[in-house]
What we know:
By secondary structure, chain A is mostly helical. Helix content of chain A is 75%, strand content 0%.
Amino acid sequence: xxxxxxxxxxAVQKSRWLPVHTxxxxxxxxxxxxTLIVYSFNGAGxxxxxxxxxxxxxxxxxxxxxxxxxxxxxxxxxxxxxxxxALGFGIPAALALDRADFxxxxxxxxxxxxxxxxxxxxxxxSILMLVNVAQVKLSLATIILGHGTALISVATxxxxxxxxxxxxAQEEASLDLxxxxxxxxxxxxxxxxxxxxxxxxxxxxxxxxxxIAVSFFLIGRDNTLPLEIxxxxxxxxxxxxxxxxxxxxxxxxxxxxxxxxxxxxxxxxREVDQLGL
Amino acid sequence: MFSRAxxxxxxxxxxxxxxxxxxxxxxxxxxxxxxAVASGNVVHQWNLGNYHDLLVKDVYRETLLRSSWIAARVTxxxxxxxxxxxxxxxxxxxxRKDLFYQLVIIPLWVSYLVRAYAWKTILGTDGxxxxxxxFFHITQHPVDSLLYSPFAVVLTLTHIYTxxxxxxxxxxxxxxxxNLVEASHDLxxxxxxxxxxxxxxxxxPGMIAGATFAFVLxxxxxxxxxxxxxPSGIMISxxxxxxxxxxxxxxxxxxxxxxxxxxxxxxxxLAERLEKKWSYS
Lengths: 277, 281
């Protein structure tokens, strides 16, 4: 820490344009978000400067918009189920990558992680072809299959990172003291992985709520929220879309704050992991 | 320490699931790319016709080149915006480092689609930017070329992928031992020399990870071009979408998708080799 301070003050000279650049990049990142929120209160539509006729009307319309709330409900169902599938297979996958050796392990690792970086259209389309060959009808279930499978990558990355920090001696002690593997898993391994698992669940939930490329091809009759919004964007836009986006943003912020409270309570300084590839 | 049964129990279920729902679909896509469409139906007639079409028809090559050019610009701009930001975060943010870091993450929690839509409301003919320019009498008439152009697509995708570029670069910089920076200074290097000879090379693996991410994901994007690109901003995935929709030619769509898949996997392999080569530990 001492070195860090001296590096900040001495070895690396302060430059004048760096803070300006940083402020400009933050402005660029937040400009659309601020615009979005401001115009959700704009009586005169989605554009037009300055905003005029400030109103809560769009929120009122939103409240009464049944199609939106049905799609929110669908998205929630999909997200919860996707979390279940992704954790259900992602946790054992991380354990397998950490402690088992089997033929094709390297290929398995790459395959699991591939959807993380592959454009969603490829994963969505290939699952669509499987669904088509198997003659399964498209529905929320096919979207769940797509999200769950693609997001195993996130669960595996997070839990694997957690396993690297796990103290093996605890598990060893549990086994030595006569607990079987099953008991050791539930009583020692899993509790120690609580934070990475909750973190992964939150991330998977959010990514699923927002996912559109995979859903785009696996959608049946029931829309998820992003697809509902997508449909409306093509018909013409009103600040109602700003309103629903603002509501979601507020919920996301609350989730982040909650997550950091939880994490700050149980661990030391945060460690930044790379994107897992 | 772990028995064979334990290893089997943890490896088999994910192995089976991933094989069935990822490997088999990708292979199926490969098979589809050799099939054909006859009188509105997919027929299992193995042939190279789709790949032949991709090679000889200009529209596919041109669209792929345009998409790569858009993705390359997005990558470049995201690096130009993101690298100094990561540098600031890691070396200058001091006690407020955590806050500044969170400020990079928070935009990621706003839906991708919604952010693209927000840019649409900013760039449109009656959009925020045009009316603002007219309000301050900078222009008399709306600037039409903002929306529905490759520019709008590049701008939106740069906005979306800049945080993804910042994060790995920041992570790489955080792993640079501070005593190396200190040593460089003590041995008489100027701040500029320290940056170019110590910090920049050591942050290269993070740059590669971020650049790969930005390039690959913007290359395969179809939502931003469809929403903001107009006819001149069509990208390769838009062609795939139409082949799987109205144009109904799944085999040709599968062939294009498979080419994208191969391109992405090769880029990843290349990036991985470069990251290994340039990482110091």
